[in-house]
């Protein structure tokens, strides 16, 4: 299968404090490479501090790498830290979606702003797109008149999906996006993820500590340890026969 998303030799260094007046370089991601196909899911797992969230930020364009490339459908969208800012095809959903919504805007206004800044749609086209997106994520059309505080936690996560989906992305990066939800709501959101993937061929990059979720959803898995890929492959094969000590440790927890 032709990869949809290809990550090549991505490196990221932070300048961290090393003493009162000194700073040192801390290599948080070293030579990260992997690829994933259209309609597939890949999980990024690893122990705390391994670099998972940093990688998620690089993929979504929230931060830039120092070197390496990110390619989408064989087109370079980030090259040695220079991002193609026109690329709206990778969107990110965080753990606490409610906190990132503007409390003073209704959901309809927020989605409308998103379309106004990023598309040439007229008012009628924007309205139509907002209604279609809300129903795609299992919300009511009337919910566009609601403010964020009027939603439950599970509904807020659906709003986050609506915000991510409204620009028709090809990849969604989920950084612990279902972890904080209680089990029944988590199951509903996971079912929504799977349905959206079936219907639209979305590709997911999922950062999570929930290995049962990885087993259930992910075709592929990347295991990070101290910023390096220590294992990468089909989830079933990696989980059945883990080669690295870190994967063995994660699976035994
Ligand atoms: N802006 C920053 N400046 C300096 N160091 C940072 C910065 N962001 C992250 N780090 C460090 O980079 C390392 C990786 O952080 P990251 O959040 O990517 O790990 P993680 O695998 O997502 O961890 P967790 O599972 O605990 O969320 C950590 O040691 C962290 O302290």
UniProtKB/TrEMBL annotation:
Main location (coarse class): membrane
GO BP of this protein: transmembrane transport
Keyword terms: ATP-binding, Cell inner membrane, Cell membrane, Membrane, Nucleotide-binding, Transport
GO molecular function terms attached to this record: ATP binding; ATP hydrolysis activity
Gene3D superfamilies per the UniProt record, alphabetical: P-loop containing nucleotide triphosphate hydrolases
Mode of membrane association: Peripheral membrane protein
Cell location: Cell inner membrane
InterPro entries named among the record's database cross-references: AAA+_ATPase, ABC_transp_ATP-bind, ABC_transporter-like_ATP-bd, ABC_transporter-like_CS, P-loop_NTPase
A Pfam family reported for this protein in Swiss-Prot or TrEMBL: ABC_tran
SUPFAM superfamilies, sorted: P-loop containing nucleoside triphosphate hydrolases
Domain of life the protein comes from: Bacteria
Protein name: Antimicrobial peptide transporter subunit ATP-binding component of ABC superfamily transporter
Organismal lineage: Bacteria, Pseudomonadati, Pseudomonadota, Gammaproteobacteria, Alteromonadales
